[in-house]
Amino acid sequence: MIRLSAFSRFAPALCALGLPLFAATESDVIVYGSTPGGFCAAIAAAREGSSVILLEPTDHVGGVNTGGLSFSDSNQTVRSTVMGLFDEWHLRVEKDYQQRGVTLPYQVSVKDSAKWTYEPHVAARVTKQMLDEAGVKVLTKRVLKSVTKDGARIKQLATTDGDFAAKVYVDATYEGDLMAQAGVSWTIGREGRKEYNESFAGKQYPKAKMAISGLDASGRPLPLVTTTDAGAEDEGDKNVMVYSFRLCLTKDPANRVPFPKPANYDPARFEVVRRYYLQERRPHLLWDLYPLPGNKVDANNGIGKQFSMGLVGACNGWSEADEEGRAKIWEAHKQYTLELYHFLTTDAAVPEHLRRELAEYGLSKDEFANYGHWSPQLYVREGRRMKGMYVVSQKDIMDEPAKEDPIVVSSFPIDSHDCQRVATADGVVNEGTIFPVRMAGRRNGFPYHIPYRAILPKAEECDNLLVPVALSCTHVAISSIRVEPTWMILGQSAGIAASMSAKQGAPVQRLEYPALRERLLAQKQVLALPVLPPLPPEPKGAVSIDPKSLPGIVLDDERAELKGEWGRTANFKPHIGTGYLHDDRRADGNSVAIFRFKAPESGRYEVRMAYSPHETRAAKVPVTIQSGEHKVEIFVDQTKPLPSGEAFRSVGSVQLDRDVETVIQISNKGTEGFVIMDALQLLKQKE
Question: Containing domain of residue 321, as a range?
Fold first, then answer.
């Protein structure tokens, strides 16, 4: 029960003294920040029998889970380990659709690598239901103003709309606001490589340098270029990875709302993007678009793209800013996104087919109606990080994963977006990206424990606070931890620990781990590191085959004209050339690879395809071949194994004419599973 201490008998005296009529609103546990980690902390604590207040500084509850991020990245984890409230939340999302007669393209009970997608309004409905059922008191528009402490103990919070007191507190903000106000040590930005002996620390340059000038005629950096000096490669800095919006878009005319035209649009702002497109050999859409239920897509910043939805450099200072400062940064990101959409759909430097493709999308009428159909939640990928009892680093993820006090098994790849965009003497290069660091041959990252100690401040700094989101770790570690599956389970663990500590009246640092473990398991968490199935044996012989060494007409994926979204990898071997393309199981019909060539002589040709067979592949990949008047459509089953010892499989035949252009098109239209595009080989048949 929430307790409000009234002093009605003493009201006249208190008023005369200028003191408040009411004392702070009290509960056993207060959670500050309704992020996914926050609402899970609140629900978990309430289910343990504690009275819980969930304070949210904005009027939006649910963080990015209800703010546009419409699949929670668990497809890149060992799904059997991300259970507890994360799994329950998804089961309830699935049930919400089932009760309305909507069939989703996945089953939560099946722990494969399918994307668990949902619409923002469904996520919000499920989140509210779970909070209501748990009896959590949710109060929005409560911005933290100050913290009152007695020694190492928080006594009370003052917000813009009331004071609040609890026995134990949970800081579940992305930014670590309560932690910082409470005087707990924290850091922000990136460590140098020597600080924790991390190979992925310091500066990172995995993206190709663009052969364009990043300077204007006066020698100054162009807009969207952040610096000409990135700093020493092995040193850290205060830069954080790029923020962006996750927009819910649609092509459906009945639900499509046109993008607002940006005020004060300046085409010169995108000169560096214009230069990039003019030299790009394989131009592509700069936004990642993930299919959702309801004929919608989730638009995201593309980690592998040179320019995308993230405004590089503009997020620095967000965590340290006050409410007004954050509002300005939020508006700057919205303005950039609107201007970028306008540029990508109108500027002549962007290929016409890409302009048309993006222009088909608008905002969704049935999402975020109170905010002009625009997400109110900026995607804060990282903020402050506590300097607590234990600092999780790269070593804990890749070398020493087991801990004696685990509260979650995390296995999302180490994965960071851009931090800087640098103009150099010979081009422009994005800095800070860490492309997903996965276990060899697997889609998931390295499974590892996050210890209870990592969400605990040092006892002398604060003894009744838990920090499951802005937890104690390095930038490299947060690059793996920062996704909703991990944060939701961390929040659940923090909520359980907060409830137990409140009942015991003891510092959170003194909570006995065996007792905590018992309650974590009772709330259906998984704490054991997974035993993964063995990988197939490595292929004998070469892992890469030079296309020039093969007979006939060989069309490697690097020669393809690409439309829509494609990913590139070299996980499965052997492959033709440097790797192969995949559509990331989008099945949206937009991923298309086109080859154009002239046959050296007319005749009938055998069509052979190279791909990596697997049960997760598409069983009906459409391949259309047009050569003069001759046209054939072939459907390739990529679950079928290749002939023993061969890199290609015969999939059909076609008549080619020498004097005309032949066009081959491979797409993911009507597919289920991953579409793989490695190479095609056409061999002239004997007559």
Answer: 247-371
Give the SS3 label for residue 213.
coil
Q: Which of 629, 638, 657, 646 is nearest to 681 (CA)?
A: 646
DSSP string, 533-593: PPPPPPPSS-SEE-GGGSSSEEEEGGG-EEES--EEE--SSSEETT-EEE-TT--SS--EE
- Residues 508-542 have pLDDT tens digits of 999 999 999 999 999 999 999 999 988 766 656 66
CA 674 vs. chain centroid, Å, equals: 20
Quick: pLDDT tens for 186-209. Answer: 999 999 999 999 999 999 999 989
Q: Is residue 360 part of a domain?
A: yes
| In a domain? residue 343 | yes
Say which CATH number the domain at 649 has: 2.60.120.260
pLDDT of amino acid 283: 87
When mean pLDDT is compared across 133-147, 363-377, 539-553, 576-590, the lowest value belongs to: 539-553
Does a structural domain hold residue 416?
no
Structure-block tokens of residue 582: 């995949």
- Look-up: residue for tokens 């002549």? 348
**Over the range 480-499, which residues count as b (16 or more CB within 10 Å of their CB) and which as e?**
bbbbbbbbbbbbbbbbbbbb
Select from 351, 223, 214 the least CA-distant residue to 277.
351
Tally Cβ neighbours within 10 Å of residue 86.
Answer: 26
pLDDT at 614: 85
* Beta strand segments in 58-121, E: none
The last residue of a domain, from among 371, 394, 423: 371
Task: Tell me: pLDDT of 553 over 70.
Answer: yes
Is the Cβ–Cβ distance between 486 and 446 less than 8 Å? no
pLDDT at residue 570, rounded to an integer: 85
Mean pLDDT, the chain, rounded, equals 94
